């Protein structure tokens, strides 16, 4: 919650170079929030019912495209002036309908087949959207928000300006608060964070309700759940629809912040792959873990990616080592600088992949799962118990 | 408009061309998918790294050809070198596959099958980045096809040949030939050799096979290694095909059709995979023709491939020749 001010304080402190190297920028953190929500929704269906939804990106893309199409006035019945919160909801509802349609067919299968048929559906939509020139002039590059909606998308209570703030890097509202000004990106961080938090609590609520118990029962032993008398088909369908709704909200937030989307970063199956990475590193079936997993993923990526505004290891090493060290030859005509370039420049996926493989092999419960197993329960329960000396046990 | 196109489609020359094209595509699909189906049938591991290893095979094969072929090399020598390249790539990737199986897949057999999907998915990330790093050293564009490798193709494979009224490319015939060799080779290996017998026994019942004294662990390693080797051989062939070519995105381009073929055929049946490759290849060729001649929708062939998958899973969830238990974890 306190990330932007802390980040700025650190940037202006003596350890600024290290901060810039180690920590992601606020803009990246906004991405962590909305994509984290997508990863959470993926974990909601895959981690709790055990049905790997490999085509989850289709819901993310639906949300993103709905927001942009409404803003461009291309959605029937809804003009470009539709409040952003309503667009999010509409995107979510379309995703629910889609999830039920896909789910009706897909939940007749299980295991690997389920993963594959959802992947199949998602790719059908991906190819379709990529070739449909109604959504954008160049459907391969995807649509962007046009001049019919030049102002930023507002999060808050629709219709009441005082209770809404715009998001976006350039279009976000600036807010003066306690003598300092929050930039558009920082406002976006808080407003998107608010929506993500609300969605997280909603999903958390569902997981801890009787409905969620049945979802876990399906993961642990579906035959037994059927034998007790639950209609698991309906429960799976319901869970899939809920998960699809929140995935679409995440996609809508993404489109609202970035103001454009392409088939590659919304509908493509590797988008689901990123969510999968996040949930495995964070902890499969822990909900919040997915967000931390994605945070970890993004931090590593930015840390190792090429010189962005966010810094990273490469510019830091260049500045630290100095030109002479960089030009020193190691062997043949390879310089140290060349070697660093070769190994670090834009190859973050390599290291993320290695970390991922190591996690699957040695830390199957993920970050949060392992921590929870260590302290014996969730943080909210275990921490007070530790502090008050286990009085309730 | 549609009727005119249909009339044109049904003429002997057009239809024949489509059929030859379809067979060529089927041959490619069967080569891409056969390694995947062997591995899944025996071990229950859905190998997400298959596409990446096909891509590695394409680059390795291209490297061998670029190094050995000069502009003065005669066409038939080039063809001979190509077969040598396929064999070398097959051998190299078989060794690599064996190494992957023994080091990182083996610890996962007693975990839920989802972990094998996850692990091989992580493997794709690592392999693709390693390839990108190597390409970076040699200043090759990872996203576009490797032209130098394409240029090693002998001239006559680029030219059309007429079979009666039908005109087809030599390349298509060459692909059909290689696909047939692959199918016959695997079929003979599975049914005529002792090791094939072990594999079929292990696919049917792993515990019973090991109770009868078969070293199932070793069989797993061999099958995984061979499957990866086949992926590499397929990659080498794709390197010469202008619509595929050696590039990093080749990994995803081949992985998805391979999954479709394996699942439509039924996970773990070789016969099913061959039939499915024929179905998918024909569907692809027919829709490609329609896209080129009548219907203006760029994604049509891709769309139809996935629709074949979806329809098959709705009508016959276990695939054309699949058995219920296999893969239904």
From TrEMBL, chain A:
Its main location: membrane. Coiled coil: none annotated. GO terms for molecular function: branched-chain amino acid transmembrane transporter activity. The keyword Transmembrane applies. The chain crosses the membrane at residues 21-42, 48-71, 83-105, 111-129, 187-207, 233-255, 267-292, 348-368. It is found in: Cell membrane. Keywords: Cell membrane, Membrane, Transmembrane, Transmembrane helix. GO terms for cellular component: plasma membrane. It is a multi-pass membrane protein. The keyword Transmembrane helix applies. This is Branched-chain amino acid ABC transporter permease. The lineage of its organism: Archaea, Methanobacteriati, Methanobacteriota, Stenosarchaea group, Halobacteria.
TrEMBL record, chain B:
The keyword Membrane applies. One of its GO terms (biological process) is amino acid transport. It comes from the Archaea. GO terms for molecular function: transmembrane transporter activity. It is a multi-pass membrane protein. CDD domains: TM_PBP1_LivH_like. It is found in: Cell membrane. The chain crosses the membrane at residues 27-49, 56-74, 80-105, 117-138, 168-190, 219-240, 297-315. Keywords: Amino-acid transport, Cell membrane, Membrane, Transmembrane, Transmembrane helix, Transport. Pfam families: BPD_transp_2. One of its GO terms (cellular component) is plasma membrane. PANTHER family: ABC TRANSPORTER ATP-BINDING PROTEIN (PTHR11795:SF442), BRANCHED-CHAIN AMINO ACID TRANSPORT SYSTEM PERMEASE PROTEIN LIVH (PTHR11795). Belongs to the binding-protein-dependent transport system permease family. LivHM subfamily. This is Branched-chain amino acid ABC transporter permease. It comes from Haloarcula mannanilytica.
